From TrEMBL:
<feature type="domain" description="Cyclic nucleotide-binding">
    <location>
        <begin position="37"/>
        <end position="120"/>
    </location>
</feature>
<dbReference type="InterPro" id="IPR000595">
    <property type="entry name" value="cNMP-bd_dom"/>
</dbReference>
<protein>
    <submittedName>
        <fullName>CRP-like cAMP-binding protein</fullName>
    </submittedName>
</protein>
<dbReference type="InterPro" id="IPR018490">
    <property type="entry name" value="cNMP-bd_dom_sf"/>
</dbReference>
<dbReference type="InterPro" id="IPR014710">
    <property type="entry name" value="RmlC-like_jellyroll"/>
</dbReference>
<dbReference type="Pfam" id="PF00027">
    <property type="entry name" value="cNMP_binding"/>
</dbReference>
C-alpha cells in the first residue's frame, strides 16, 4: 500500500539530508522519483527474472536478498535493516532480468527509489555526488569482504564478521537464515555459538 508519508519526519529524509546534503528544495524537485510503500512480511519486492526498476530504502522493517539453487534452496546474499538501501544494480544498469529475489522478512515501510533520483540528485548537488561515489566504493569493499569471508574464513570467523556487519539482527533473524548467509548448516552455526559462549565464560574467569 502506497503511503502519504510525512517526508521531513522520515528516516529517508534525515539520512539523505544529513549524510548527503540534500535540501528540502532538492527533495521537492526529486519527489516524482520516489514513494513510500507499506509491505507485509513475506512480500516480494523483486523476483528473479524481473528487471529491477527501483532501489529500496528501508524506512522501517527488514529486507533480504537471495538466490535459489536448482533444488529450491535459498542462498542469502544480504540483509537490509533500517536506513539501508538494497537493489540489484546490475539488473538496473544493464536492463537485464535479475538473478535475485528481494523480500520483506518483517512488516516494513519501504521507499521505492527510481534510478533517476540518484542521477538527478548527483547533478544538482556536488555533495550528493561525492556521497554516492563513496557509497559505491564502500559497497564494492563490502562485497569483496563478503567474498573473502566465504572463501577464506572458517565458520566462527564468518559469524563474528556477521555480528560486526549486522549487530542488531541476531534476535530478528531466524537461525537458518543466518546460516544461509554464512554458507554453513544450522547445526554448524549452533556449534559456533556454543564455542563462543564457552570462550566468553572462560575469558571472565
Amino acid at each position: 500500500m502506497t503511503l502519504d508519508y510525512n517526508l521531513k519526519d522520515s528516516n529517508f529524509y534525515k539520512y539523505y539530508s544529513g549524510k548527503a546534503g540534500l535540501s528540502e528544495a532538492h527533495f521537492e524537485q526529486l519527489s516524482s522519483y520516489f514513494f513510500f510503500k507499506e509491505v507485509a512480511h513475506g512480500t516480494f519486492l523483486l523476483r528473479a527474472g524481473e528487471v529491477s526498476h527501483h532501489a529500496f530504502f528501508v524506512e522501517s522493517g527488514l529486507l533480504q536478498s537471495f538466490s535459489l539453487d536448482e533444488k529450491g534452496g535459498e542462498h542469502i546474499l544480504q540483509f537490509a535493516p533500517e536506513n539501508w538501501i538494497i537493489s540489484d544494480r546490475a539488473s538496473q544498469y544493464f536492463n537485464k532480468p535479475s538473478d535475485y529475489y528481494i523480500k520483506a522478512i518483517e512488516h516494513s515501510i519501504i521507499v521505492f527509489v527510481q534510478p533517476e533520483f540518484m542521477e538527478k540528485a548527483s547533478r544538482e548537488s556536488k555533495e550528493f555526488a561525492c556521497f554516492l561515489e563513496n557509497s559505491l566504493q564502500r559497497n564494492i569493499y563490502i562485497q569483496q569482504k563478503r567474498i573473502n569471508s566465504l572463501l577464506a574464513m572458517n565458520a566462527k570467523e564468518r559469524y563474528l564478521s556477521f555480528m560486526e556487519m549486522y549487530p542488531g539482527l541476531l534476535l530478528r533473524v531466524p537461525q537458518w537464515m543466518i546460516a544461509s548467509y554464512l554458507g554453513i548448516t544450522p547445526e554448524s552455526l549452533s556449534r559456533v555459538r556454543r564455542e563462543l559462549l564457552t570462550d566468553s565464560k572462560e575469558a571472565k574467569r
